[in-house]
Amino acid sequence: MPAAPALDAVALQEWFRDAARPLPWREPGFGAWGVLVSEFMLQQTPVTRVIPRLREWLTAWPTPSDLAAAPPADAVRRWANLGYPRRALWLHRAAVEIRDRHDGVVPRDVPALLALTGIGDYTARAVAVFAYGDRHPVVDTNTRRVIARAVEGRSQPGPPARRDLEAMAELLPEDREDATLFNAAMMELGAMVCTARVPRCDACPLAHTCAWRAAGYPDTGDTRRRQARYEGSDRQARGAVLRMLRHAPDHAAPTDAVIADWPDVRQRDRAIDSLIADGLAEAIDGMLRLPH
């Protein structure tokens, strides 16, 4: 890969020091477990919905061992409106693995983090960097967009690929503290300024070196995969089933009574079957319940 164009890391980091949002996981001493929980929750979920749930989780389960000792049903119930509830089960399983394999301490090593349930390239490196201060490239959707525009002159990034880590690694400062700050600043810039639809280029600390701006903001196309519509989808039906079970006595109800008024009976049945297959629900003696 050819050397990446210059990117003004100093200007970016200075901007971040002034503009960074005061998010819980940026507080001193937040801890590796808090960072790990926040990263699970932030996958495809807005920050505003995550913050209250994160505080509830860390109050209920301040350590991985605390969560590991709780029934999986409690994790699914507390997941509430965060969406993609399999993440709740994955986080519970990861907590069990941390307790059993790592004496209850979130590991620092990226391969050890990758071996935990539900953790991929982004989350493993985010924990190693933001919890432990190690030097790794951290790449999320926002980072990829900043690189696509500021470095590559494209209006949108392509589909996620391994080369994204390589591109970020080439931009990363050598100093560990600077690298941590740079990772966070790139993510913040993409989230708050270099947004997907209406970028605020007048407020961007990289505007003076941005390749996309210099090229006249060309529309280079968008090959990213589109998320399926939620309204009327199987995902909506699954969410309705879980919502009912979360609020039912003992988190259980007769299977025939679960969202019995759903307009599409076959979709309702598919939703129940898929939740059972995913381990998010259990069918026992005519009853559907959250997993124990």
Protein model, in words:
51% of the residues lie in helices and 3% in strands. It has 292 residues and is mostly helical. Among the domains are: 31-130, Hypothetical protein, domain 2 (Endonuclease III, domain 1), CATH 1.10.340; 234-289. A three-stranded antiparallel sheet has the order 1-3-2, covered by helices on one side. The model has no long low-confidence stretch (mean pLDDT 90).
Quick synopsis:
The protein is mainly α.
Beta-strand residue fraction: under 5%
Q: Which CATH-level-2 architecture of the domain at 31-130?
A: Orthogonal Bundle
Radius of gyration: 21 Å
Q: So what's the CATH class of the domain at 31-130? A: Mainly Alpha
Counted beta strands: 3
CATH third-tier fold name of the domain at 31-130:
Endonuclease III, domain 1
Low-confidence stretches: none
Q: DSSP helix count?
A: 14
Helix content: 40-55%
Distance between the termini: 50 Å
Order of helices and strands: HHHHHHHHHHHHHEHEE
Overall body shape: globular
Characterize the main sheet.
3 strands, antiparallel
Descriptive terms for the model:
292 residues; mainly alpha; Endonuclease III, domain 1; three-stranded antiparallel sheet; 14 helices
Helix-strand layout with pairing:
Blueprint: H1 9-19, H2 32-42, H3 47-60, H4 64-69, H5 72-79, H6 86-102, H7 110-114, H8 121-130, H9 141-151, H10 163-171, H11 176-192, H12 211-214, H13 234-247, E1 252-254, H14 265-277, E2 282-284, E3 287-289
Helix pairs in contact: 1-11, 2-3, 2-8, 5-6, 9-11, 13-14
